[in-house]
Structures
1.
Amino acid sequence: MSVRRLAEDSVQPASFAFNPENSVWAEATIKKYPAGREQSAVIPLLMRAQEQDGWVTKAAIEMIADMLGMAYIRVLEVATFYTQFQLQPVGTRAHIQVCGTTPCMLRGAEDLISVCKSKIHHDPHHLNEDGTLSWEEVECLGACVNAPMIAIFKDTYEDLTATQLEHIIDRFKAGKGSDIKPGPQVERIYSAPAGGLTSLTEEIPPAPKSEALTGAPAASSEPAQPAHTPPSNAAKPDTSAPETDPKLKTPADGKSAEPDASVKPAETDAGVKAAKPSLDDPNRPAGVDKPETPDDLQLISGIGPKIEATLNGIGIYTYAQVAAWGPAERDWVDGFLNFKGRIERDDWARQAKALADGGEEEYIRVFGKKPR
């Protein structure tokens, strides 16, 4: 990381003042701190000054120091320490901060830096020709498992490739940065494992409540209570139950771990799979005859060969059909596939609409990545 200094005097404005709205906000923010501790407001005031002018000017630093009764050097120390503060003019539409710490560097940060050099400016902290874009390399941005990543103002964009960053830069340059959804740019939710869960993926039906509590069938209709465990043994497993005896090779007394078969499905504990919705349900999406060229439904994230075949089996062949599903129809399909909310989480309707409207090109415009 290079030494952070204030911009040249030639670009520094002569003065700074918060606008009326920010002035009210600043005074209220300072009052949040106890008497004698008002200087604690220095970071939020610097951030609000940056949001107002786009960067932190020398005049802003001096005015904030005066507001808080601080020496100029103390506010300058804060502004130059944190890379969240820009000390010279940045792009009006995007200032791209590329994480260059080890995890991101191992996962392709150098390729992202090369893209910034070719599409914005060869050197960091320099504006592009029309003044809309700038870039810099920074230290860890805090999402190492999603490396490599960048930050644009308050949003982060993770799991990037050079091609995806080129597309993101193009959208921001065109003034359409809101088209890009922040966060991971691959099929994962936040920092969940890429490609889906690898453990704890099976549902294990719980034992009947009486056995779960006592290790033996209940002797009465009253719910059994767990035995009191002394505090000194609270972290130790209870191995007094007959089932834990290593001499036993089969469950004691013929007990089974399966739920009581006499209990109706609707009365069992959570974890038992619900029955599929009926094919005659009025919420079932309308099917169509197989077209001559069906759409490739596998381009929708969350649909693989097996799911596509199942959807085809109920007459779903096109992106337009999926895009037109209302909440009730999505719930029906979710239950039919036993997806437990996955259709909403993966946003099938929005994916399908993008593919129906303009194929892969429109999908990339909307989601900032290629389908699948």
Note: Confidence is low (pLDDT under 50) at residues 251-271.
2.
Amino acid sequence: MSTPLIAVYGAYGHTGRLVAAELHSRNQNVLLAGRDAAALEAMGAELGYPVHPAALDDPEALRGLARQADVLIHCAGPFKVTGEPVASACVETECHYVDHAVESHHVRHLFEDFQSRAQSAGIAMVPGMSFYGGIGDLLADAVADGLHDIDRVTTAYAVSGWRMTTGAKETAAQLFAETERITYTGGEFHIGYVEPRNVVFPFPPPIGPRTMIAPFPSCEIVMIPRHVPARTVEALLTAETFTEEQVFVSEHVAMAERAQSEFTVAAQVIAAHGSRAGRVTGTDLWRAGALASVEAALRLMEVPNKTGVLSPAEAFPSDVLLRTLERLGAFRVIIEE
């Protein structure tokens, strides 16, 4: 039996490097991939891993990559550009797929257009398995467990010291320029212009109430309604996150400096006969996302009990995965009883 192999696409970017380093520390069999052959060769020499250059406009090279792997972790955004070709290569070659997308339109596209293809191929595709999106999806599911007649689910991100990469800046510019946003109200999805507004979210101490950007166009808006029967789902982000000087001028900072972010992700579930809240708190949101995707990939290399396109909370038991990430040092988990 051959040793299972995990391909990392966009391996030389910040997130890709964190993913590859974590897999290396666990002695996993890894194939480094991406568009820049020189960057891949240098990284391959550093870690002792083979490399596979593959451009986004080269379907055969992408299929050749996915054909070698049991699961592929896609780390190279913006996924509006990179998601379709890499996901297509995986479904065509029966390779499990995990990505770091935050973009709700990309995730919705996979759910709507790749579902039957992934099921026919016998693979699982788990988009949004990252800090923004995936952690909120898992946390909302864990907090909502056991509640009925749910009116509203809110995920709220308090982030400071965020140092964006070039890809993150491009994604943020795309998201905040969108006029066709996906929202979920009245038990239905809506697509259209949404007037941005500020709201106050009551984070518990020591953060306290904070002014938030609403809605924050993160992909859990698409994912949470698949497994939590709520009438409204909304994501929020602290307004002060984007007023910090370093956030937009940090493409070339060292990895150690980029690791200095601090975060709390809160989930509030309001139901007819009670409510509940939970949160995760930690430092270095990039590492938290990398650990989440690595854990997802390792679980998919085992015999999966589900196929198709799945949100993180559909693919994995949310409380179990959150507690695993807590043990790995990604964050601290607090869920009200």
Note: The chain has a mean pLDDT of 95.
3.
Amino acid sequence: MSTPVVDIWGPASPQARSSFPPAPAAHDEWPLEGGTAWVYYSPLNRRQLTRPVILSDGFSGGSTNLDEIWHGLEENGNFRFVSELHAIGRDVIILGYHDRTASITANAETAIECIRRAIHERVGVAKLAVGGFSMGGLITRYALARMENDPGLPDHETATYLSYDSPHQGAWFPVSLQAFTHYATDKWGDVPTLGPVLRQLSGLLNSPAAKEMAAWHIGKVDAEPAQAPERLAFLDKLAELGGWPRSVRKIGVANGVKTGVGNGAEAGATAVRGDGETLQDTWLKIQAQGDQIVARLQAAGDEATMVRTSGLPDIDGAPGGVFTMQSPVGDTGSFGLAALLMSLLGNVVDPGVITTSCFIPSISAVASGDITDPKALHDPIAAGDSALDAFHCAGRNEGHTTMTEELGAWLVNEIAAE
């Protein structure tokens, strides 16, 4: 079971892990307008902020849980990212937010405040490294670009920008899963036991952050999949700032492969099907190209609702970081979450569930292509394709923001080479 740094579904999932071993006490804690920064000095720096590395949290429900993000960074069983940064003399600042579903631009203001505080507290003149995990990479990308363009803000004094499986070209929430979540919320959102969970999940998918990240979004079961107005507005704002910070070296990693080999989810296959007490022959399919019925949703005694897509690529099976959810009983992924909800609603789920699918395509994480292009999704990524100055892709398609030695060590080496 993978241990992500950022748990996509977070506390909204009915199988969410309720607690994590406590993180060590931070050497310093900075209350920020929209969040908190926890400072861990390198043992080499005598408890002074000398060479700061700011690591931003990403998209999930609620506020940042330091114990959880520390577990993903340090106690993942693969690579101790904070310890390795400390070993090269870097001080680590973990940046969290009061609301991880808030808009990217809103949380970017918190990131700017954190950068300014780091510059103020820093001893010496060493430049910063700033970046984040998942949506945290977008938040810090926007924050640095805004600092370069706003004459009212100081120089960000940053040498390196880094991202870890960030949705530079957009994220993918399966349309069938979005539709099922909204449908179930409409039908059973008032049920005392499962209703609050359904409302949370539907709200998460309809949050400002999700709308800004998702390449295709539906706000209700019968909506047409498209970029949300919030995403279009965010992209316009980012473009006005030049798209990227210009005076930094940009590096990033993907939890997916660069070879073009997908994750094995076969386009058009039925991912999950449930039938029983509350549902009749309800199923969700793996996204395929062209016109397709991606879901059949039917509450017992009602007419069936068919969910159609047109012109979408076969993105569920694309190479990239896949949906994960840390829990005591296993990784539910994307369609696995739908299977769990169907079971909790009193239905029997067919065996052989295809539990997970692509969340951040590799070409999105390394900013090398358009995820709406089916060919680009599955083509190998060449060294010169990326908008990043340097990037590294995983050797296999693995859980989104899973910290591995392969990716973590590459980042540490790049930061050490500043």
Note: The two ends are 34 Å apart (CA to CA).
